[in-house]
Amino acid sequence: MIQDLAIFWPALAAGLLVTATHVPLGIQVLNRGIVFIDLAVAQIAGLGVIVGDGLGFEHHGAAVQAFAFGAALAGALLLNLTERLWPEVQEAIIGVAFILAANAAILLLAANPHGAEHLKDLLVGQILWVSAGQLPLLAMVSAAILALSLRSKGRIAFYLLFACAVTISVQLVGIYLVFATLIVPALATLRMRRGRLAACYLLGAMGYAVGLVVSALTDLPTGPLVVCTLATLGTALFLAFRSAHGPPS
Predict the structure, then answer these.
(1) Which of 45, 126, 145, 235 is the most buried (most CB within 10 A)?
(2) Helix 2-32 and helix 135-151, axial crossing angle in degrees, nearest 10
(3) At residue 125, what are phi and psi to the nearest 5 degrees?
């Protein structure tokens, strides 16, 4: 029991920190109509991780983090440019960026005997392997991103903060969970006019907590379970709010 708790609480803390930074960014993503930007930037950051690994740097070391951030920053700035130049096709460009980064990652890992394992780790994450020692730095960076995201409203600031948030989260929780944390709370509370931010945070916290508990009880993969839990709770909240307030006029 004590051993399970030692694994559980750092994973939950990491999930809460990811939720803290992704909720306000997710609301902005929904408002901007660029829902799949998170998948694209996360996949580009993952491509940076693969490049850093391929060059022989330590998997979770500073050099690989630098590769991930550089790739995410370049992707975010490029998408910022395309939004200014061709806003009418921005969502399509984001989709192309995602699929290109995903397939480039597959090609780079094709000759790696552990390629399939590395690719799985990027997609579903290894949240249970988060250690307590990683949390202080994660908390400081998350606090800075959160403070800036609540104050900065410009397009370039949004893309820069987005790149930072994705870089620190994608190796912890994986691309799928990063996307779910960003979009599901914002989408579930779309019709709320008061208390939306608090509802998003509560939904995110419950999704991670319940998913981690169910994973511990069933021995099923944690990342996919948290994604499914977030989606289930988000759907229930969305339908409950719609039922209580009726369709929009």
Answers:
(1) 45
(2) 20
(3) 75, 175
User: What is the distance between the alpha carbons of residues 121 and 32, in angstroms, rounded to a whole number?
Assistant: 30
pLDDT tens profile 24-69: 989 988 888 777 887 888 899 889 888 888 888 776 677 888 888 8
Q: Is residue 167 within 8 Å of residue 69, measured between CB atoms?
A: yes
- What percent of the chain has a predicted confidence (pLDDT) above 70? 92
Tokens 């930072």 map to which residue?
164
- Rounded Cα–Cα distance for residues 228 and 234 (Å): 10
Structure tokens at 179: 């996307």
pLDDT band at 244 (very low <50, low <70, confident <90, very high): low
Answer yes or no: CATH 3.30.830.10 is held by domain 2-245: no
Against a cut of 0.70, is the pTM above it?
Answer: yes
User: Is residue 231 packed enough to be buried (19+ CB in 10 Å), middle (13-18) or exposed (0-12)?
Assistant: middle
Inter-axis angle of helices 155-173 and 37-54, nearest 10:
60
Largest Cα–Cα distance of the chain, in whole Å?
58
Q: Which amino acid does the sequence have at 106?
A: I
Residue 67 host element (H or E) = helix 62-85
Distance CA 52, CA 55 (A): 5
- Half-sphere exposure of residue 101, counting CA atoms within 13 Å on the CB side? 30
Q: Cα separation of 181 and 227, whole Å?
A: 8
pLDDT digits (tens, 9 = 90+) for 93-122: 999 999 999 999 889 888 777 666 767 777
The string of pLDDT tens digits covering residues 176-190 is 899 999 999 999 998
- Distance between CA atoms of residues 7 and 130, nearest Å: 8
